[in-house]
Design goal:
Radius of gyration: 17 Å
Shape: globular
Helix content: 40-55%
Oligomer: single chain
Strand order of the largest sheet: 2-3-1-4-8
Distance between the termini: 10 Å
Bound molecules: BIS(adenosine)-5'-pentaphosphate
């Protein structure tokens, strides 16, 4: 099974991808996470991507498609893939078709998380993560059980993304509308698009996605 999770910044793609990994043993392929790892490692890709990401613009199609291709090569054919944050442009959608064909895979579902953009700004600007294990938290929706201590690993260090301020978030949303939303009709003509209410509680969203995957 190979699926795309599609939706604007903060729609819950990463949250749902992690839950699908736990439920279905699939692998999350998040180009955002891959790029942030490259920035942290100060690799050549990271050095190119850093300023682009901080402005909320898109990194080049070639870079992200190469990252996805490399991950699929490393995964082997038996593990299902959840594409989180990729494809984001028409060129990436074409590249993904070509990459999947080369790996003997096919796209089974494109799941669009439908959301209210204003609510998303609050979601994104309030989120943070454990600096040690990456567990996600939110100022209002999901705080650690013991203040200042990660529930999962006990670390006291937390981090916020540099592109999670309101101005950049609004720009990322505009980029989504201009560059990413237009790839949906192409998938619709293939009859593989499903829509899920991304404003529902996290568990409800997961149940709806689970129901699509049986
Ligand atoms: P990326 O990391 O992909 O960011 P994004 O698409 O902007 O999405 P987010 O990670 O912000 O949101 P999400 O939908 O995963 O939501 P989450 O689950 O975290 O990309 C970052 C940058 O990298 C891009 O701007 C670009 O520069 C570059 N990039 C990446 N991929 C690229 C590509 N393919 N091409 C070119 N450039 C690329 O949830 C958000 C918060 O809401 C969390 O706190 C969560 O707990 C909470 N939450 C989630 N669901 C719910 C719910 N149902 N109810 C209440 N709270 C919820």
């Amino acid at each position: 099974m190979n699926i795309i999770l599609l939706g604007p910044p903060g729609a819950g793609k990463g949250t749902q991808a992690q839950r699908l990994v736990e439920h279905h043993g699939m692998r999350q392929l998040s180009t955002g996470d891959m790029l942030r790892a490259a920035v942290k490692a100060q690799s050549p890709v990271g050095l190119k991507a850093r300023a682009v990401m901080e402005r909320g613009e898109l990194v080049s199609d070639e870079i992200v498609s190469e990252l996805i291709d490399a991950e699929l090569t490393a995964m082997g054919p038996e593990t299902g893939a959840i594409f989180d944050g990729y494809p984001r442009t028409s060129a990436q959608a074409l590249a993904l078709d070509e990459i999947l064909a080369r790996h003997g895979r096919q796209l089974d579902h494109v799941i669009e998380l439908e959301v209210d953009e204003d609510a998303l700004v609050a979601r994104i600007t309030g989120r943070y993560a454990c600096a040690s294990c990456g567990e996600g938290y939110h100022d209002r929706f999901k705080q650690p059980e013991r203040e200042g201590t990660c529930d999962r690993c006990g670390s006291h260090e937390f981090k916020r993304r540099p592109d999670d301020n309101e101005q950049t978030v609004r720009h990322r949303m505009a980029v989504y509308r201009a560059e990413t939303a237009p790839i949906l009709p192409g998938y619709e003509t293939r009859g593989i698009v499903s829509r899920v209410d991304g404003m529902a509680p996290i568990e409800t969203v997961t149940s709806e996605i689970d129901a699509l995957l049986v």
